[in-house]
Write a sequence for this structure.
């Protein structure tokens, strides 16, 4: 019993020490789900790169901390933040109320519409309940696209959920999927630029309703790391001010 | 009946995760897992019997190919086999135009093929062990009666081998149920797939996975009791006799 008490006191002391430490980071570990081109992916040499990576590194440099990228699969990315595997998530995460109950978001650093992508042979001009009836839709599990498609089309279409965007693109090329619903730039770089087959965007890019599509991508922190989030917000504003942000943006999405 | 549904609604009223919708996913998962495991076990069993006989053959050219097959499928992880069958086949040029494609296109059949080949390999080895363990006395007695090789196999060796293999095979069935949890990596909405969906949607790992673990436990209990019943029936002659 006494031993148990000592152990739990020790535990408390460690917890207290680490939470005191949490206010003052000099090394920020950032969780990221790779690959998700062009936001985060590896070059042929195996080097981690992408819009999130470059912007994240620039932000850390501005704040004066070192950044360490920790890879984590998407469906466990928020639990990973909670269990302190890393201190922030910068991985194309859309800000929405559901997630806000779990994490603290920075200001949005980019807004990104979603879009339907299909082989040109599918030959539909708009995605709705009629045109999607009986089709197989691919989405990445646990994404806002998953929620949107699940709530709106699960009664008329089959939904296939993938752990990574790569697996999904592979199955699209294999003709197992009729249509996929993705962040627009991801679909652009993985499908529209594909040499395998001809893909087209079906209908308009979608960023409404806000309850699904949120307010843009944000960096997620644990709720109590307000100071850290504030530091990132300030740094982000500075980078947008001095043109660094535009330069990084142009590197991946071309000039606006 | 009304009481039950009212009680059920009350039970679900206060939580966000276990709504009728998510329970529907779990149900769908239960059906998929059961189908997948049951069908692959039946097909695996049917394949395993002739393979086990071939594997016990004295002729190298009969037993060696079977040995290679069981060696490969027992020597590599089921997950890798599933990846190769599901994602690998699409790299065969023109596969989409063949008659195989309607089968391979769905996630269910590649998973079923992988599971069947895997369980058949293990079951073959289980049966081979049981065939090998047939006591010499039985074989000599059968020969003394003038039974042909075929008749002896059918009447003496196989029936007693099946009985001997039963406990080990019961284990294989349970392993297969648990191994089927990887089906969700190829988009199948099996039990684990349902749990991963709920987990990713509500960020609630404990609720999602504890619930599904409880379902797996129930299924395992059912299998255990089924095999205990079978053993009681079929291995009755091995129990001590009360005079």
């Amino acid at each position: 019993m006494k031993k148990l008490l000592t152990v739990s006191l020790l535990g408390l002391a460690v917890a207290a020490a680490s939470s005191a430490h949490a206010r003052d980071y000099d090394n920020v570990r950032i969780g990221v789900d790779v690959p998700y081109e062009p936001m985060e992916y590896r070059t042929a040499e195996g080097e981690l790169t992408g819009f999130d990576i470059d912007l994240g590194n620039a932000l850390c440099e501005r704040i004066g901390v070192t950044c360490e990228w920790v890879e984590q699969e998407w469906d466990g990315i928020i639990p990973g933040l909670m269990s302190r595997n890393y201190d922030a998530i910068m991985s194309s995460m859309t800000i929405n109320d559901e997630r806000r109950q779990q994490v603290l978001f920075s200001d949005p650093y980019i807004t990104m519409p979603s879009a339907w992508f299909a082989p040109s042979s599918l030959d539909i001009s708009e995605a709705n309940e009629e045109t999607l009836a009986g089709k197989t839709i691919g989405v990445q599990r646990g994404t806002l696209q998953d929620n949107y498609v699940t709530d709106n089309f699960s009664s008329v279409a089959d939904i296939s959920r993938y752990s990574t965007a790569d697996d999904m693109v592979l199955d699209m090329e294999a003709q197992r999927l009729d249509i996929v619903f993705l962040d627009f730039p991801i679909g652009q770089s993985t499908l529209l630029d594909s040499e395998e087959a001809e893909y087209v965007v079906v209908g308009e890019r979608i960023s409404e309703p806000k309850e699904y599509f949120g307010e843009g991508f944000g960096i997620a922190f644990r709720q109590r790391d307000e100071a850290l989030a504030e530091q990132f917000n300030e740094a982000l504003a500075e980078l947008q001010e001095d043109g660094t942000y535009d330069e990084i943006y142009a590197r991946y999405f071309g000039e606006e | 009946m009304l009481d039950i549904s009212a009680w059920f609604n009350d039970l679900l009223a206060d939580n966000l995760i276990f709504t009728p919708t998510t329970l529907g996913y779990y149900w769908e998962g239960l059906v998929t897992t059961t189908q997948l495991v049951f069908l692959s076990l039946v097909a695996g069993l049917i394949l395993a019997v002739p393979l086990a006989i071939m594997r016990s053959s004295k002729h190298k050219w009969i037993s060696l190919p079977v040995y290679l097959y069981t060696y490969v499928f027992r020597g590599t992880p089921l997950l890798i086999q599933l990846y190769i069958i599901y994602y690998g086949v699409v790299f065969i040029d023109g596969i989409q135009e063949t008659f195989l494609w309607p089968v391979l296109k769905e996630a269910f059949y590649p998973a079923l093929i992988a599971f069947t080949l895997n369980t058949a390999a293990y079951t073959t080895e289980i049966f081979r062990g049981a065939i090998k363990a047939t006591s010499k006395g039985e074989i000599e007695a059968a020969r003394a009666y003038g039974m042909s090789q075929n008749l002896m196999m059918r009447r003496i060796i196989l029936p007693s081998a099946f009985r001997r293999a039963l406990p080990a095979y019961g284990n294989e069935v349970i392993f297969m149920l648990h191994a089927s949890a990887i089906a969700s990596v190829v988009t199948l909405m099996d039990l684990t797939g349902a749990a991963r969906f709920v987990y990713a949607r509500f960020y609630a790992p404990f609720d999602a996975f504890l619930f599904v673990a409880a379902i797996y436990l129930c299924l395992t209990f059912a299998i255990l009791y089924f095999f205990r019943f079978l053993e009681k029936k079929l291995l009755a002659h091995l129990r001590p006799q009360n005079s």
